[in-house]
Write a structure and sequence with these properties.
Blueprint lengths: L5 H4 L15 H30 L3 H32 L2 H6 L2 H41 L4 H15 L2 H32 L3 H32 L21 H12 L1
Helix pairs in contact: 2-9, 3-5, 3-7, 5-7, 7-8
């Protein structure tokens, strides 16, 4: 029995399993690094192609426009503060010393000026904050080209809405008409606080004339900007803050799908 082969002695003995060759850690790390580098190159190529077709990212445009509205917020806050300080400085004796119509006009113009400028200040501050947050989120998505492109398109849908553009235009007009109202309130304040009637009339005339000039030249500058830069012919119309995007080709769609899958 000992001379028989091993296969005949143990016909049902299991065969030895063939072991698969183990990959070295260096090779696995090299493959992962190659995949990461290839993905990064694909993202860079896609981003460069997108920048060539669309130019500056829309989030940068939103940041610039909302930053300009933030400047209006600062000016409106100053005007509202000055007007409210003058309102609190008037005593009942000052109001009784002049004609009731003058006191009523002062209270009306000052209240309207404070309310309008405060409203413009709060809204423009919120718009500036939202624009900066939108730009920050866009920069956070800059590493992923496909996600960044989708987010930029989402910003176009938010900031480029017609209702939103009309509201921003109304805010600008409120600021424009609130500035001469502030000057008129200062003119009536001179009649209330200056006891010499000659001096009070001179100060009233100066502030009233300055208010008229401010309204005239603000409207003139705004009209030149609207016609020459924004290309608007109708008054109180709002500009479009978007542009037609270039139609994507099949190569761009395939590249975006590849980046998403990676």
């Amino acid at each position: 029995m000992s001379s028989l082969p091993a296969a005949r002695r143990f016909p049902f003995s299991p065969k030895k399993s063939e072991k698969s060759p183990k990959k070295s850690p260096k090779k696995s790390f090299r493959e992962a690094a190659d995949i990461l580098i290839a993905t990064q190159k694909a993202n860079d190529e896609y981003r460069k192609k997108r920048e060539r077709t669309t130019g500056e990212p829309y989030s940068a445009v939103v940041e610039g426009l909302t930053g300009a509205q933030g400047t209006l917020a600062v000016i409106s806050a100053l005007l509202a503060g000055f007007a409210f300080s003058g309102l609190t400085a008037v005593t009942p004796e000052d109001a009784e010393r002049v004609h009731p119509t003058i006191a009523m006009l002062y209270y009306a113009t000052t209240t309207v000026s404070v309310a309008v400028q405060l409203f413009v200040c709060v809204v423009c501050t919120l718009l500036e904050q939202e624009g900066k947050v939108a730009r920050g989120l866009a920069m956070a998505r800059a590493s992923d080209a496909a996600s960044s492109y989708e987010y930029e398109e989402q910003l176009k849908g938010w900031y480029g809405r017609q209702e939103f553009a009309v509201f921003r235009t109304q805010i600008i007009w409120a600021f424009v008409f609130g500035v001469p109202c502030f000057a008129i309130s200062l003119a009536f304040l001179c009649l209330l606080k200056i006891y010499r009637i000659e001096v009070a009339l001179v100060c009233f005339s100066c502030f009233a004339f300055v208010g008229f000039l401010m309204l005239r030249y603000i409207l003139w500058l705004n009209e030149m900007f609207r016609v020459g830069v924004l290309g608007l012919r109708e008054k109180f119309s709002s500009p479009r803050v978007s542009w037609t995007k270039k139609k994507e080709g099949p190569e761009d769609d395939e590249k975006a799908k590849e980046i998403k899958n990676d």
